[in-house]
Structure formats: structure tokens, C-alpha cells
């Protein structure tokens, strides 16, 4: 099984500012943690981060028939991008939406997620651990429309 982990705009800046919202870890820390988790689960993992919407659409398209599951934190594109929603629908790859914070408890404009409609689950507000939960959901199989949030 191969899982693609996609991180959207500004996630390459994690650990630099706003640690009270996103924690102190960097994108590199996150990817190293997920590599260890993938080894434990016995799955192959690939990482992609981009600040460009079209580049993320291209990456999702090129994953067609190549990866078995996608973990995606679309970052700000969560709240704006029909193109990412359509890309996930187009490839039909089981996809889990992840957010480090819980966008539903923040600004009003963060309450909309376009991509959610095409995802089998959403994990939010659990920090970096949310990505591990997402990988577990994908490896466990047929979970439909689960939303998990920190209590
Ligand atoms: O909570 C999340 O994971 C988000 O997807 C993170 C996005 C935000 O736009 C979403 O509403 C929720 C932001 C990505 C990182 O932005 C930074 C901002 C300041 C310093 C470092 C990163």
C-alpha cells in the first residue's frame, strides 16, 4: 500500500510563527514522524508540499492508479478550492482531510471546507497526531464520512 501525504500553502512555515495554534514542530519533523509511522504500519509513504493550488491539483492527478490513499492538509485552500475537491473526486482515491488546528472553532471563513465532500474522513484539532490517525483510517479500510475532533 502506498500513501501520499500532501500539505498545502504555508505549511512549510510551521514551527516558525504561531506555535500557540500549530505547535513548535516543523514540516520536516512532521514528515520524519510519519515516515516512522509508515514503517510501523508497513506502508510506503510519499510527501508533497506546495504553496500553489495548480501544483497540488497536478500531484493529485498524477497519483491516479499509483497511490492507494491520500492524506491531505489543504491549509488555506480548504476554504477556497473547488479545484482540489474536483481533483480528489476525479481520481477516486480514498482521501482523508487533516487539520492541525480545528478550523471550525476559529474564524468564520475557516468553517467552510470544499474538499470535505470528497473525503472519507476528517481529522482536526489533534496536532501532528491527526496525520497518524488519518494514516490509520486509510490502512484500516472502509470508513465513511468520519469526523474526529479533539474533545
Ligand atoms: O489547522 C490547519 O492545519 C490548517 O489547515 C492550517 C492552515 C489554515 O489556513 C487552515 O485554516 C487550518 C495554515 C497553514 C500554516 O500557516 C502558518 C501560519 C503561520 C505560521 C506558520 C504557518
Instruction: Indicate the multimeric state.
Output: single chain
Average pLDDT number: 95
What CATH calls the topology is: Rossmann fold
The backbone outline, from C-alpha atoms, is globular
Number of strands: 6
Name the beta content range.
15-25%
* Strands in their spatial order, largest beta sheet: 2-1-3-4-5-6
What small-molecule ligands were found? ligand CA2
Task: Please provide the ordered H/E string of secondary-structure elements.
Answer: EHHEHEHEEHE
* Main sheet overview: 6 strands, parallel
**What structural category characterises the helix and strand content?**
alpha/beta
Instruction: State the CATH architecture.
Output: 3-Layer(aba) Sandwich
- The CATH class, by name, is Alpha Beta
Task: Please mark out the parts with pLDDT under 50 across 5 or more consecutive residues, or reply none.
Answer: none
Q: What level of helicity do the residues show?
A: 25-40%
| Overall radius of gyration | 14 Å
Question: How many angstroms separate the termini?
Answer: 31 Å
Helix count from the secondary structure assignment: 5
CATH superfamily caption: Dehydroquinase, class II
Number of domains: 1
In short:
The chain has 151 residues and is α/β, with parallel strands linked by helices. The protein has one domain (2-140): Dehydroquinase, class II (Rossmann fold), CATH 3.40.50. The chain has helices at residues 19-22, 27-41, 53-62, 82-91, 129-140, and strands spanning 2-7, 44-49, 69-73, 95-99, 121-124, 146-149.
